[in-house]
Batch of 4 targets.
Target 1
Amino acid sequence: MFTGIVQGIATVEAVTVRPGLNTLAIRLPEHQTRDVAIGASVAINGTCLTVTRQEGATLYFDAMQETLNRTILGQLAPGDRVNFERAARIGDEIGGHLLSGHIHTTATVVAIERPENNVTVWFELPEGWSRYLFPKGFVAVNGASLTIGEVRDNRFNVHLIPETLRATTFGEAQVGDRVNIEIDSQTQAIVDTLARLGYDRPASNTTNLGSASS
């Protein structure tokens, strides 16, 4: 499990492409790799991956075809920067919300607004996924637990404070970028249960209740 509190930014050093499998060599800050064990779980842009090898501060991960199909990991190239979080341990502070590291879908950055001292980023989801998004609810974007601001049809936004921009790759985001999305599991369970009982959520055109920063 993960907390959605990104621990830093790592750099892709190499990508080895084989049929149905990409091996990613990713360099983390050295102090974040001192006690890593082979088989440990690390979230890379929110995707739970298993450490298969370590060379100094560089960790190796295998991403199989299903992972490449469902996430943006198949787009990664040497030099790309990614968010990372090592798996949570019992006793760790849960500063965000619990994540599984299993990506549901991807979204596209469609607008970036830069009011004074913060940034608002708008994302567009594939049809059907916005039913799980609510203002003030949670969503994980590239592994970061964020509070949802507005939801408009299949688009939503988040408001990012300077610390979030510093500690994650969101400070480098550009319109057109694709990101990994993990829906809050409790929200998904409630929405799906109500739908089975005949209380499906109606389509929403515009909702604006503001947002807390993350």
Target 2
Amino acid sequence: MHAATRLAWKTLIHASRWLFYSSLCVLADALDTVLSHLIPDIRCPAILLIQSSDADSLSDETVIKLIVRPRKLSPDSSAYQITSRTVAKISQDADEGATDASEANALDLVAKKTNIPVPRVHRVIKQEERYVILMDYIPGQTLAQLWPTYSIWKKSRVAFTLRRYIRQLQHLKATPATPPGPLSSQGPRICENPGIFSSMRSSLTPFASYAELAVFFNQRCKVALDHYKIPENDPSRKRRFDDSGPLVFGHQDLTPANIIVGEDGLFWIVDWSWAGYYPAWCEYATMLRQGDRKSDYNFWDCLVPFICGPYFKQEQWLSSIEVGLYYRE
């Protein structure tokens, strides 16, 4: 088969795949809109019931003392269960001297502006160069634990629910003055999304604007193309960071391990430490990169374009410049 023929077939397959997912997304959104009119849009009752914490009577000093290894929720977690209903999580902000905890800001925003079940923040404690966030403990199992046991129908129901969550998040658009990245009262913060920024995270500086974010990625693209010695007249030299849409709010680490199937039957979203304002397609790219690569998750990967939208071109562009993200001039 000639190279031109192979390219034509590849293009046709990609176009068909995009059309399939796009049509599926349109149908799902239409169904969701109809259901939202038939069923009153009310706040999650479980969230409304949680008004206080059983750790309210504990002093800040006592809370800090309770943060010990045996109380960790999981070996690689930074969250500790300090009482039967309360978790203390150490913030993971990369900025030195941060004036607030971005994850607490994210949880507050999502709790106030969406119907997505999330832990409620009860207190934020400043401890030296870090913050400790007291939030609700959500009893249940992670979707990572349950996913292999689910039927295709049940997995599809999860995908539909997550797509509804993503739609709500992406209605939270940044204002023109809002910088990309984590939420903060202090202004621009370092973007901590390792699914996109990879090993360069520690050497990044905050982006003051959406335009700065686009310039950064376009520069990294040039580094990658130069690294591979791509000719100056090659079509790939004209491809750019997609900033055609607004910055929208995203979780940026939406994996089965960060979804709790609660005892109440709800799908609770936890671990908002990398949440922030990014282009909508970034949620898709991070879900593919942060997802579990076990064989049980092959169907999960197939559902990601439906959950987030089929941003195939943007993700392929990002993959093509990865070498540029690892090296700095």
Target 3
Amino acid sequence: MADAARRLTALAEEVLGAPLPVRVRAWDGSEAGPPGAPTLVLRRSRALRRMLWKPGELGLARGWVAGDIDIEGDLYQALDLLAELVWERPGGGSRESRPRALWGVVRDPARRSTVRRLLALAGPGLPPAPPPEEVGARRGPLHTLRRDKAAISHHYDVGNDFYQLVLGPSMVYSCAYWDTAPAGPGTAPGGGTEGLGSLEEAQRAKLDLVCRKLALAPGQRLLDVGCGWGSMALHAAREYGVRAVGITLSEEQAGYARKRVAEAGLSELVEIRSQDYRQVADGPFDAISSIGMAEHVGSVQYAEYAGHLYRLLAPGGRLLNHQIARRPEPDETAYHVDEFIDRYVFPDGELAPLGRTVSQLEQAGFEIRDVEAIREHYGLTLRHWVANLEANWVAAVRATSPGRARVWRLYMAASALAFEHNRIGVNQVLAVRTPRSGTSGLPLRARDWRG
């Protein structure tokens, strides 16, 4: 009799000491678990082998990317429930000391009997090969020019058509900015909260907020670090008359952005370069925007990043640093990048606590004048992107690959929950290269950006 789901559920509950919160459908067609709950679908027995050979998030993610594992029902609810089993457990200890619950049993010598039964259920065979889209071997020290370019290419050079489907017409790949606060997590997409504007409107509002914080004016020079597909540089030139230089390490982004600039008739005002921020040497600039780029810099390189941007600014110039932040760890030496994110999404990327970012900017010479936390806005943004991907699934798979589309759906949905549950945040830090005279150029009243 087909009973793999029942046996797996029983083993899981033996480990947890509580009922499994999701329903399970196994490769033999059997089902077990609470009716009406999201269903974890294990399409092949090798899905279990992946999780046994690589306990924790990476084994589960590899099964997802390969199509061995799927979710039926509310994806966000399912990820919330699974997070308690795989990624985190409430209560005590550092991230490293928390039990890994169901999959942590594999490494517990006291649970050898359970391990043997899980192995018998998974069937014979060596650990399955990782599915495509995983980052290959990385050579050399972290954050050299060559290694950073390869890391950026892995994430961004996956096809502009794919990103158009996910991001929508704005082609902005960072947190949008809404005027109306939603009633709760996930209430905006698909009809959403009354009065909440579209994603395109919210992205335009974010770009304009950055321009206002920088107090941009006609004739000024703006450097947009990590310019993406050119949206910030285009907005600043078109709406504020600045001369903008956008830099990116992604060749596909650069080509797309140059085409947009030409089509907008702004070639005299906007220059797009394939260039690392460390190679920019034609300052001074009146303002610098860095939106969603500093996450790629890395802790070993951040002091150089902050110092180089400081030197590129004219005295009195402003920097707007828009950056995702993680919560501080009780023991900072225990921090590590999530394996799934590092292997499949943002190789070599790192998140830092807000306090560390502010301190390093200050150590570079900047005066910090404003910090705005916009965490809830990123949860909304990500849910919109997931909705776009799901609505255009067939075209998205055609534009890249089934594995890549599955990677993006998982990482964006899980990231939305991380923002909504305050596990990570995002902040806009306004910093000034204040001259020796002490005149910052900002008004006495906070957030009257132009003075």
Target 4
Amino acid sequence: MTQQQLWDVDAARSYDTPGTGMFAPDVLGPTVERLAELAAGKAALEFAIGTGRVGIPLAGRGVPVTGIELSEAMVARLREKADETALPVVIGDMATTVVPGTFGLVYLVFNTISNLQTQDEQVECFRNAARHLGPGGRFVVELWVPELRRLPPGQSATVWRSESGYVGMDVYDVLEQRAVSHHFHFDAEEAHRTGRTDAVRLGLSPHRYIWPSELDLMGRLGGFELESRHADWSGAPFTADSRSHVSVYRLPPS
């Protein structure tokens, strides 16, 4: 399945969940606050801007935002909320597409760099970020830490969330450094009452996972130095037990 097929009209229609999940104030608020701080008054470019979850509120903070997005369906959804004047978007992939202008900040949130399926493409993503930045510019990547320590011997899958109406599971291929996220959505009360399982909706998303040290090497290949790494957007310390990280890379000032 290609990324265009994955992020189709149905995915775009169901992506926004105002006030909950990724759109919950305690999730989105710190993200926008930190990015506005890192932009430091300069323009920002969002790779894989999607439906504008982050880009629209960041622009609302006075940061000029431009987006790159592969899925026309996701951009159509964004256009229901912000027009081209308020938030320009170029259709293309984040590893090679170039937009006019020079930016102080490029950012890539919510594990999206792992949507690129090869190491070469992921390295090119860093190089493309550098291509758009001026001296001292920053590239911010939010990414999950592969949970291979949770894999029992001989097993290839971990359940990373289980709650009423939803189960999230990752199936790993440790040889190829890939993972496929399985998202099971269902009406828990209906399933419990009737025993029916045919109402379960399954969504799949393939990833090439990246260890933090490998990500740092990609940064160096792109001309960046690691400026900071935290466990979340609020600045919690990154430790061996952290499940994700927000890493800020910076180009030399001259």
